Amino acid sequence: MPNILKKILKFIIDALTFLIFLILILLIYSNVKMMVSGNDYPVVFGYSTFVVASGSMEPIFSKDDIVIVKNKKDYFVDDIITFKDKDNNLITHRIKTKRGNILTTRGDANNDDDMATVDVKDVIGKVIKVYKKGGIWKKVFTDPTIIIMVFVTLILFDFAFSYKGFKKKQNKKIVDKIQDVSLKQVNKMPDSPKMSNLEIVELVKKTDMVKAGEEVKFDKKEKEFLNYTIRLDLNELQKRIDGKMKGQ
Length: 248
Known about the structure:
Layout: H1 3-37, E1 47-51, E2 66-70, E3 80-84, E4 90-99, E5 102-106, E6 118-119, E7 123-131, H2 135-141, H3 144-177, H4 183-186, H5 197-211, H6 220-247
Antiparallel strand pairs: 1-2, 2-7, 3-4, 3-7, 4-5, 5-6
């Protein structure tokens, strides 16, 4: 896979991991706040989300749509609000009349006003956004088990990419250390790990690939040979330094 595609894919995985992590934090925050406040619906920074349960507000929104509701200080005629009725049911209808703190509401698809009036204190908020058929996604992204599974999967993908990048850097370091050494000459050393001419040619190809920035996997025998080469090269360098020191 070309490096540019790998970088793009890693960026996407990192972005998704951050997004899922953020959703997980918001989910934990909203659940904790629900327990503290005693509410049976989530509130995050004054916003709540609800899945529409009926078609009483069609064509504005339909069953299984998601509505985003914002808590307001005041509400006016023609606002679409979500409120709790006397039976503690959540209803999202339009305000038809307002007399002080008492509201009359009606679903757009209904012919008559709701039988019971609504006190402003029972209003959760005003509908500010509608997402068509978003109820399915809400079920997915509010299930802690699913969120955690997706988060862990993305972390593993990110770890896999990071590990490949780490191995690539390690290979580059090894090859950089032996870039001035002839592997064929090293193979002639009496105590070197022996490799066939074909294996040496293949190893040279791999080192060239590493220099070009490509991913390469060295087998055990190749790693032993490269490590021997590095030790040999360092010993040779030390001999040259010692020789120069003696010549001074």
